[in-house]
Amino acid sequence: MAPDRNLARHVDLTSLQLFVSVCELGSIGRAAEREFIAASAVSKRMSDLEAIFRTPLLERHARGVTLTAAGESLLHHARALIYGLDKMQAELGEYAEGVRGHVRVHASISAIVQFLPEDLGSFARTHEHIKIDLEEHLSNEVARAVQEGAADLGICYLALEHQGLQTRPYRQDQLVLITPQQHPLAQQESIDYADALPYDQVGLHSNSSINRAMRQAALRAGQSIRLRIRVTGLDAMCRMIDNGLGVGIMPRRAFELLHGAGQLACIPLRDPWAQRQLQLVARDFSTLPQPARLLVEHLTTASPQRPAAA
Q1: Alpha-carbon distance 288 to 284, whole Å?
Q2: For the segment 77-133, what is each residue's pLDDT rounded down to a tens digit?
Q3: CB 246 within 8 Å of CB 230
Q4: What's the N-to-C CA distance of the chain in angstroms?
Q5: Tens of pLDDT along 170-219?
Q6: Per-residue 3-state assignment (H helix, E strand, C coil) for 173-234
Q7: How many helices (H) and strands (E) are present in the chain, helices listed first?
Q8: What is the rounded CA–CA span in Å between residue 233 and residue 174?
Q9: Rounded to two decimals, what is the model's pTM?
């Protein structure tokens, strides 16, 4: 028999919190001590949860308890629910302190490094009662977060249309090849990425938009990328290149902002994919909450498009 689908009538938050404590401590007795409640009461609540879900959640033994497969699943969901409630409480508490709106923004590293500090800073100065929660993610993860409702607004590079999402242009950037100043390619005025393939490469995350573009370009050239190391940030990439570990690709404006990272050369790429359009992404711009609409307006009008660097 399937469990009752209307769990809100049967599962209370206290029981879920106690379940998490039991799982974390591996003992009903220790969980009871931490939560200041009788062990018998904790045991009863665990039995009640198992009755509600009609499946064992804990295996009880002399030294404590271990989780069943169903218990592992419930622990994951219980933690997510408790975290969500804590976050909701924190946000609502900020409203009581004068905050008049929240905007959840997920953005790619390219957008965060190149443009968002100035753009969000100017927005915050004119809308001081609106709080922006900004998280850095890969472009495909940004789109997924918007699609699933985890973010109100995304700012990223989308090479393909994502079904169910709307986009608006935000900024343009240009990808460049970064090399040590003494590298054989350093004196080139511009270059095709294929000319860099014979050299060791310093790459970003394998699912980043830049890395995907590099792989596709190498495939078209019938060559492979000699990837020597992956890094998670553009500053780390510059330091690795400066120390002779390879060449790398990053947005030109980001390199200019990080130029103190070493004795490096910047060579524009001639490949069409090196000219990129960063986009604002939403499920429906017209139905965004008012604070998010104000941010979109600011990003698209108060901060006009900058052309890609030559």
Answers
A1: 7
A2: 888 888 878 777 766 665 555 556 788 999 998 899 899 999 999 999 988 888 898
A3: no
A4: 66
A5: 999 999 999 999 999 999 999 999 999 999 999 988 888 888 889 999 99
A6: EEEEEEEECCCCCCCCCCECHHHHCCCCEEECCCCCHHHHHHHHHHHHCCCCCCEEEECCCH
A7: 11, 11
A8: 17
A9: 0.65
